[in-house]
Design goal:
428 residues; alpha+beta; Outer membrane efflux proteins (OEP); two-stranded parallel ribbon; elongated
Length: 428
């Protein structure tokens, strides 16, 4: 009978600090790269618009064939023209060729305004990129903290398993000595099975948290991450009004929309510029074999043309439409400012609540630990039941989980506040 060796798949893992996670995300995140590509596109658009200042080159060639040669016949008109005259109007087969340059001397300021719009677009998209970076940093930091929290909760359950196993062993020894009934042993075994289920769930939660972090930094989702503890300094006193004012100054998205407003100003000028005449200069060389009596058949020419072309008062309505677009954008900016203010206020209140919750959780943990140690000692002395011991241990484990969750919720609330403000929060 053949024996098959089990297939061992190596687990790839790498160490990653809190700051390294942020830096990796800024370098590798796909959404960020997409925004960076847009800036590259904007720069190419600006180069494209600058070509409007260059002369327009043209070259045309045609070859024409007629079925019959066209002639001009002049009947006789004595005494001036005693006999009829017949001559070719132009050749039966002929070619035309021209080559030259057109240069728009004046276009109603359209070129200048178009370039200004393109320059503003680059700056606006850089602000959008900064806003995306701000959000991404917040997501990565929170994802890292979620993974740390999941790891600590797993460690708590593993320690609980050790404690329950000790209680089970103690119950089995007491049962052998006839000090407790079989019920104590069964209770401990049931509790141990429950803890093992919690461990399995905690392991799954940790894997998902690490996979989400890998996704943000554009790493293989199956890679295991060796996390390091973080030390984030918490602000002591915060001023909500100052935080709201800072957010209005710092948030890049507001700066981007401000540039979009200026772009609409230039679009309006472009539409109004259609009422202005355009001046075009042209220089060209041309050759034709069409006319048999033409001499010379090639020549050079230079011209200056003044044109005015618009349909009804369409540019006027186009300018009015852009004014309404600008008014609409002002409303959007006003609403966004209100939303940012609400975002800051919400994050601020959540931070204060999380701070209080942590203090409550720390006090609960201290009391639960004292209670568990006391009941554990009582069980050893046969002054408490297995039910009392397991209940006390559950309280203690729950309190440790509560403290861990509250601590990381506080850190995440601070990160949400930093994201809302647009940077590090300033103490009062």
């Amino acid at each position: 009978m053949k024996r098959y060796m089990p297939l061992l798949i190596p687990v790839i893992s790498y160490a990653l600090t809190f700051d390294e996670a942020v830096n990796k995300a800024l370098q590798q995140n796909l959404s960020l790269k997409e925004k960076q590509k847009q800036i590259l596109i904007d720069k190419l658009s600006l180069k494209e618009d600058k070509q409007l200042w260059m002369p327009q080159f043209f070259a045309n060639y045609s070859y024409t064939i007629f079925k019959d040669t066209p002639y001009t016949n002049i009947p006789p008109n004595p005494p001036l023209l005693p006999v009829p005259i017949e001559f070719k109007q132009f050749e039966k087969n002929f070619s035309n060729f021209e080559i030259g340059l057109n240069y728009p001397v004046f276009t109603g300021f359209q070129r200048i305004n178009k370039i200004k719009i393109s320059k503003l677009q680059i700056k606006a998209d850089k602000d959008v990129l900064s806003e995306e970076k701000l959000r991404l940093i917040g997501k990565v930091k929170k994802a890292y903290l979620d993974a740390l929290s999941a790891r600590e909760i797993l460690e708590i359950y593993l320690k609980q398993k050790e404690a329950v196993q000790i209680s089970l062993k103690q119950a089995e020894e007491f049962h052998k000595e006839g000090l407790v009934t079989k019920v104590d042993v069964l209770q401990a075994k049931v509790k141990l099975a429950e803890v093992e289920r919690n461990i399995k769930k905690a392991e799954g939660d940790l894997k998902v948290a690490k996979a989400y972090l890998n996704n943000l930094i554009n790493e293989d989702l199956e890679k295991d991450i060796k996390l390091e503890n973080v030390n984030i300094e918490l602000p002591k006193i915060l001023n909500l009004k100052k935080l709201e004012e800072t957010a209005q100054k710092n948030r890049p998205i507001l700066k981007a929309l401000d540039k979009n407003t200026k772009q609409l100003d230039y679009y309006e000028k472009i539409q109004k510029g259609q009422f202005l005449p355009k001046v075009i200069a042209q220089g060209k060389y041309f050759y034709t074999s069409q006319y048999p009596y033409l001499d010379p058949k090639s020549n050079f020419s230079a011209s200056l043309a003044l044109t005015l072309n618009f349909q009804g008062i369409k540019p006027y309505y186009s300018a009015l439409k852009i004014k309404e677009e600008k008014s609409k954008l002002f409303l959007k900016i006003k609403q966004l400012k209100n939303n940012i203010k609400l975002q800051v206020k919400t994050a601020y209140e959540k931070f204060l609540v999380a701070k209080k919750n942590l203090k409550i959780a720390e006090n609960s943990l201290k009391e639960a630990k004292q209670y568990y140690e006391m009941v554990k000692q009582q069980y050893k002395n046969q002054l408490a039941s297995m039910t009392d011991l397991l209940t006390a241990e559950s309280y203690y484990t729950s309190a440790k989980n509560g403290k861990t969750i509250s601590y990381y919720q506080l850190l995440k609330a601070l990160i949400d506040l930093e994201t809302a403000v647009g940077g590090k929060v300033i103490e009062k």
